[in-house]
């Protein structure tokens, strides 16, 4: 009976294909891979698409005002202790929190979007260590939403029933989590960090400068280092994700103004093998590539290896503050820059929560500094004993349990 | 060989199209780079072929590849001297996972579809739990040589691919191959004529596990440690096998055609990439191929009634 057998096979294969695709979408959230603050992007971009530079049309996520604000913030001096960037804030507008004042000990709660990528892992460990520093925190309850909006919505509701004194939220997506955060605001002081929500009811929103600054930092470096007319390859993880679109749209603005030629904008899915294949293909097609722009550093080493394996010098490139890239940079003397989306921001919400519960002022918008790694400050950030996927700007070096808890070795 | 002809024709057309778009492809270095990239999928397709032709599925290979790469990185942790022991361990682990799949399928009579789907989930869950979402450690240079390095312009992947391919063809020509096909065609008849059906199937699953281990060594070598390295490979492998004209449900198709199917699939992806088609289309293309290939197989069958004298009553 060959026919029914084949039909059953088709059905079963399709079922699983569907299931797997769906699973892939939820567990491998592109936004989480590089995690960046999401400006509430709703207005149509005012940026113009300059087709001549090869960057294509401007992203519909582009918001000129946010772009200008972020680029301006890069040159502002943050307020706060210089050796503790996670306590600093750029141009803070302080708000009074006396109405939240309460006697300790405190019960802090945290609704986490996910811990499914190295960036979030480093951050999560850092946050736990920060909690351990404060004796007045009697209890710390954290729920992991595993990258699912629906789980995070019920997590936030569940935490409200647990008698939290303050609730920290790292939203999985901006729009979907807004109602849940709004509901929680009425009951406890809420602190939001990393990605934002479309309401100002949280007491404070903590984030580094943002994606536009990240993308522009990298693109400006290439515009400076790559000779005029040079061919630049832009590698992106996925289209249509706001936190990644801001990085690319900022780079596009910079490239459109420059004299560089963007020969390709490709999507890597954040996959090292695919990245390496794409770069190899471009090297075959164009003979040479004079610069590589990346919206996230996780696959930067794979891109570099494509040049090495082709026997070509590695052109100016940007990565992120991940250990493997910094190590490669030092070992091979790259012309490189690493904009960051610092993981030390995971310390700030705990500090903010305690300030709020003690009735101290906090910034309404807590913009953390977002340094970039350059060849000058590279030695300060490179920690040879840390694992390859560690993020250097964890601000965790002074915390108890470092480096073992972050997977490092004591030298 | 005859069975492999249609897919070889498609492959030639695709290769020609690539060569037109990218003349570098015709140079030895360009073509070898393509083979190097295709090698892991071709080896996986050969492993999948054994399972498919015996009438089963192996959906666990993708997450097995991921698990092996992540485990290797953690165990080696940059230590050159650990390379060979870990390589041996990976091979053993691949065989072991195949053994478990095979035993559960044959002895406990759980459909292989469920067993290997379960194994996929178990492995990916275990990897996630063990790594907490981000792999640790690093592969040694020695480990990476197999997927990255080469002898002059000849990447190591290519001789590894040739050896694996030759071994697969040889296996299918040996007694094992005949009993495997007989099992897939009609398990009952094979059992009645003295084939140890369970043993043959378990061996097929172990071969698939072994192929996943080899693919993991090549992929980990090619691009380094990543928690996404094996994502979707089970479907690429099944698509490749089906594309090679191997019938899902078992009994028909050649291993050479399955491997040619994998090269064709890789060529198709390369071509799409060369023409700037988004990578997101890859899964769509695979889906269409699976449906079209199986549908084509199902349509063709009724047109070829095989009247044999004396067995009119046995026909189903």
From TrEMBL, chain A:
<feature type="compositionally biased region" description="Low complexity">
    <location>
        <begin position="28"/>
        <end position="48"/>
    </location>
</feature>
<dbReference type="Pfam" id="PF13407">
    <property type="entry name" value="Peripla_BP_4"/>
</dbReference>
<dbReference type="InterPro" id="IPR028082">
    <property type="entry name" value="Peripla_BP_I"/>
</dbReference>
<dbReference type="GO" id="GO:0030313">
    <property type="term" value="C:cell envelope"/>
</dbReference>
<comment type="similarity">
    <text>Belongs to the bacterial solute-binding protein 2 family.</text>
</comment>
<feature type="signal peptide">
    <location>
        <begin position="1"/>
        <end position="22"/>
    </location>
</feature>
<protein>
    <submittedName>
        <fullName>Ribose transport system substrate-binding protein</fullName>
    </submittedName>
</protein>
<dbReference type="GO" id="GO:0030246">
    <property type="term" value="F:carbohydrate binding"/>
</dbReference>
<dbReference type="InterPro" id="IPR025997">
    <property type="entry name" value="SBP_2_dom"/>
</dbReference>
<feature type="region of interest" description="Disordered">
    <location>
        <begin position="28"/>
        <end position="55"/>
    </location>
</feature>
<keyword id="KW-0732">Signal</keyword>
<feature type="domain" description="Periplasmic binding protein">
    <location>
        <begin position="110"/>
        <end position="361"/>
    </location>
</feature>
From TrEMBL, chain B:
<dbReference type="InterPro" id="IPR001851">
    <property type="entry name" value="ABC_transp_permease"/>
</dbReference>
<feature type="transmembrane region" description="Helical">
    <location>
        <begin position="229"/>
        <end position="248"/>
    </location>
</feature>
<feature type="transmembrane region" description="Helical">
    <location>
        <begin position="82"/>
        <end position="104"/>
    </location>
</feature>
<keyword id="KW-1133">Transmembrane helix</keyword>
<feature type="transmembrane region" description="Helical">
    <location>
        <begin position="202"/>
        <end position="223"/>
    </location>
</feature>
<feature type="transmembrane region" description="Helical">
    <location>
        <begin position="255"/>
        <end position="277"/>
    </location>
</feature>
<feature type="transmembrane region" description="Helical">
    <location>
        <begin position="153"/>
        <end position="172"/>
    </location>
</feature>
<keyword id="KW-0472">Membrane</keyword>
<dbReference type="Pfam" id="PF02653">
    <property type="entry name" value="BPD_transp_2"/>
</dbReference>
<protein>
    <recommendedName>
        <fullName>Autoinducer 2 import system permease protein LsrD</fullName>
    </recommendedName>
</protein>
<keyword id="KW-0997">Cell inner membrane</keyword>
<feature type="transmembrane region" description="Helical">
    <location>
        <begin position="113"/>
        <end position="133"/>
    </location>
</feature>
<dbReference type="GO" id="GO:0005886">
    <property type="term" value="C:plasma membrane"/>
</dbReference>
<keyword id="KW-1003">Cell membrane</keyword>
<feature type="transmembrane region" description="Helical">
    <location>
        <begin position="283"/>
        <end position="301"/>
    </location>
</feature>
<keyword id="KW-0812">Transmembrane</keyword>
<dbReference type="GO" id="GO:0022857">
    <property type="term" value="F:transmembrane transporter activity"/>
</dbReference>
<keyword id="KW-0813">Transport</keyword>
